[in-house]
Amino acid sequence: MARAVSNRRQIVTTIVAWTIGLLIFFPILWTILTSFKTEAEAIADPPSLLFFNWTLENYEVVQERSNYGKFLWNSIILAVGSTVIGLLIAIPSAWSMAFQPGKRTKDIMMWMLSTKMMPAVGVLFPIYILARNSGLFDTHILLIAVLMLMNLPIIIWMLYTYFKEIPVDILEAARMDGASLKSEILYVLTPMALPGIASTMLLNIILAWNEAFWTLNLTTINAAPLTAFIASYSSPEGLFYAKLSAASTMAIAPILIMGWFSQKQLVRGLTFGAVK
Amino acid sequence: MATQHSRSAARLMNTPAIFLLLVWMLVPLCMTIYFSFLDYRPLRGVYEWADGFENYARFLSSGSFTDSVVTTLIMVGGILAITVIGGVLLAMLLDQPIWGQGIVRILVIAPFFVMPTVSALVWKNMFMNPVNGLFAYLWKFFGGTPVDWLSQAPIFSIIWIVSWQWLPFATLILLTAIQSLDSEQMEAAEMDGAGFFSRFGYITLPHLARAITVVVLIQTIFLLSIFAEIFVTTNGAFGTRTLTYLVYQRVLESQNIGLGSAGGIVAVILANIVAIFLMRIVGKNLDN
């Protein structure tokens, strides 16, 4: 009897949850579907959900006409570049603070976090003018540096919380056995830290890929990533819904997939360990 | 001996990060402070000292500043209300036994990974457009007159778009927090005859208080800097100019660097007030 009731309750919650889930996801689904329509069908009245002539035409047009490949390449370079360099700087830093904490470690951690709290617009002009005067405006180097510095506190914090979970006893055992600092890092720490490093990397690529303040203000053509490419659709000419959808689908697909894999790390990375 | 050696090695390993962040924070910030005391308008060739705190006085006393603060407060407040209330409800829903829970979770979280320019343009064109948007079609279908969302209800529209992006974030964090709730306590309360609302009010909500605070603070810090969503939808028109957007316009559009820099410093100070509260919570957690 009780079981029947709870079963019925599960049916109801399942229906409600699926309905809400689909409603929230609908704009993305609609974008993906529209990307396979012709421009005329994209604005057809009444709109059709599935029964239209599926076409790949928009993807071809977007790639040919707007140099899509270059923007995509820039997005990849900026996201991966800033993440890799960020990790190279953050790993030693987080390692030293997690395993050799000093009196001021906590203060340093908090100070690093505070740099993340500074609104970008407060330093917009200095960065802009430094970029202009040094000739680095609209270059990969500049954007990689800015994105890396912007996310460095998050990377260090995430790695720190992961490193903290590694049992110190193991490190001490290795030290007893005469392992040098180098081999300690290479053979003991790294294998245990790799999952944490991988998820930190994933989250940081997502953040860098979607960053849309510096990428919009510090690029024009050469280093402009997909965020800027999509923004150029804000002043449209003629029919463009299907093409906008195709461009958008290509811009979000890789990150959407990566994002689904990094749900758990997202909580840890963006709350700085305050919610577990 | 060995400890001392490894300790100095540790310091050495931490140096690059500290040095880079120090430069990244101090150099531009000092420059902004310096610029904020100048009358610097490159388009007119003006570059001289301003009269003391003139820029600050002018920025703070201008009507556009007051308007932008009001807009920012409405926007951030509206988004926080929608995402936190919606997030609590959704988290409680997703915590129930559901068939296909993993998939529903994936659907709900997805908007967070959509880049801001994409979500803003998709909503603007394919949903809120008064002629071809899906909302216009729905309105016509039910016999209403289509609304030009972004010019008739611009702030609401942007609140809507940004809330769609941040609802998953709030949901995910609150769901994580709700899952750490002791289910025995819940069952005991149920046995004792506590109804849904008293269970929610006396057990769930107090348990979530901390997570809600964290969500509010982190979102506030990110939301104070909303940029792309305004940039591609209204470009600051129709009363959607937030403090961030006002400073951006002063600095890069009208190129009044002195005034804009003073505005930038004001934005930094306001953001830091919020940040202090967040840091306190995070700091406490670091001790445990």
UniProtKB/TrEMBL annotation, chain A:
Transmembrane ranges, per UniProt, are: 12-33, 71-96, 108-129, 141-163, 184-207, 213-233, 240-261
Tell me where the signal peptide lies: none
Name its cellular compartments.
Cell membrane
Domain ABC transmembrane type-1 spans what residues?
72-262
Pfam families the record matches: BPD_transp_1
Could you list this entry's UniProt keywords, alphabetically sorted. Cell membrane, Membrane, Transmembrane, Transmembrane helix, Transport
Claim: Transmembrane helix is one of the keywords in the record: yes
| Taxonomy, superkingdom | Bacteria
Q: How does it sit in the membrane?
A: Multi-pass membrane protein
Q: Which CDD domains match?
A: TM_PBP2
Q: Which GO terms describe its biological process?
A: transmembrane transport
An example Gene Ontology CC term for this record? plasma membrane
Which family would the database say this protein is a member of? Belongs to the binding-protein-dependent transport system permease family.
Q: Give the protein's recorded name.
A: Mannitol ABC transporter permease
Which organism is this entry from? Ahrensia marina
UniProtKB/TrEMBL annotation, chain B:
Give the UniProt entry's GO cellular component terms.
plasma membrane
Xref: InterPro entries:
ABC_transporter_permease, MetI-like, MetI-like_sf
Q: Which residues form the ABC transmembrane type-1 domain?
A: 69-278
One Gene Ontology BP term is:
transmembrane transport
Its membrane topology is listed as: Multi-pass membrane protein
Q: Which CDD domains match?
A: TM_PBP2
Please report a single Pfam family linked to this protein: BPD_transp_1
Family that this chain belongs to: Belongs to the binding-protein-dependent transport system permease family.
What protein am I looking at?
Sugar ABC transporter permease
Q: What is the organism field in this record?
A: Ahrensia marina
